[in-house]
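On clarity, I found the account of how folds are encoded harder to follow than it need be. What matters is that the chain and its backbone geometry are given together, residue for residue. The format is easy to grasp once an entry is in front of the reader. For illustration, here is how one protein appears when written out as sequence plus structure tokens.
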Amino acid sequence: MGALYIVSTPIGNLEDITLRALSVLKEVDFIAAEDTRHSLKLLSHYGISKPMISYWGEREKIKSVEILEKLNSGRSVALISDAGTPGISDPGAVLIKKAIEEKIQVISIPGPSALIAALSLSGLPTNEFTFIGFLTSKKIRRQKVLKNLSLEPRTLIFYEAPHRVLETLEDMEKIFAERKAALAKEITKIHEAVLRGSISEILGKLEKTTIAGEYIIVLEGKTAENKLITGDILLEISSIMKKGFSRKEAVKKIAEAYGLSKKELYDKSLNETLI
């Protein structure tokens, strides 16, 4: 039985590839690529020529059967995506899951990671973080997800497309107010840039730049300093009510915890839509 190698590839600069990754790509029988045309640039750069199988998008479900047949016949396969690690906000998870179910050896060849690179550049806490990936393109659903995340104390990491980055940051400004953030663009590429500051400051800077390329948003988690934001307080009331407490009981708990007026907090909770 063969082995499936999960090979991380550069997220921009072609030199950001490990010696082990190059060795595996040269030695395997097949390379399963998200987009063979894209991956050929990397392989050609390093003089690697191997039979390739494309598994992009919906093809992954179909092509995984073909790849598993090769693995079960004793062939080795390197799984790569267009950039970074397969399965992490990229295709590959379906094949990896099926390979594990069929008791095929799965081996990780770690390497570049856009989310880790952005986190390290952000200047925000790195001891604990939560990776969200891409948010939904539906505005109401996106806002609901962000509101649910507003109580999260860990640093938050998001991927975002250029045509939605402004809209997403505007939603974040409404929900997270003046929390610190970092917006990383085109990491390891020619036009790499990082904007840091409050969300509103980043929005101001972004309006003066060309919006293009791949973006990563790193957002400060909930801290003692930003805990008394009105939106956060109301979400805490909502969270307690979802556990079966009445509005009055929930307001009392929060008011006592933060030294707030119960009447004022109760009135505000009535005037706001708690999601």
